[in-house]
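Here is the promised in-class demo. Please do not try to memorize the tokens; focus on the logic of going from shape to residues.
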């Protein structure tokens, strides 16, 4: 009976570890924002002259991310779990993550400010400084 418990525990640990690694492999690369939906469409943030700002996210295997928003870019850390993505100090619920699409929703105390973002994988790159 002890052996069975140990085998099940090891199998479970390996399964969860491989899922985390698989998720991280899927997110590695550059993503371009193609859509932003606000819970309250009356609130417009990140819109300049009614034109959306280009947003690129470049995830690296080492747990770092480079973010480009319009002309500005910055580096941060990210953490990925099965259903949650943390970028710096912001948390997002993962609604979809596969090899070419990423959909995430902001986790916010202010539901009217929470946005859902849709990204597609891209060949674009963010210049390293």
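The designed amino acids, position by position:
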């Amino acid at each position: 009976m002890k052996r069975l418990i140990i085998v099940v525990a090891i199998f479970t640990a390996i399964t969860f570890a491989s899922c985390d690694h698989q998720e991280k492999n899927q997110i590695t690369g550059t993503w371009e924002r193609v859509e932003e939906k606000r819970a309250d469409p009356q609130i417009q943030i990140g819109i300049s002259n009614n034109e959306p700002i280009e947003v690129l996210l470049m995830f690296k295997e080492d747990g770092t991310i480079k973010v480009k928003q319009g002309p500005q870019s910055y580096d941060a850390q990210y953490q990925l779990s099965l259903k949650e993505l943390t970028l710096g100090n912001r948390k997002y619920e993962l609604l979809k993550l596969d090899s070419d699409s990423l959909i995430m929703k902001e986790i916010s105390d202010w539901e009217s400010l929470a946005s859902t973002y849709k990204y597609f994988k891209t060949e674009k790159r963010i210049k390293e400084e």
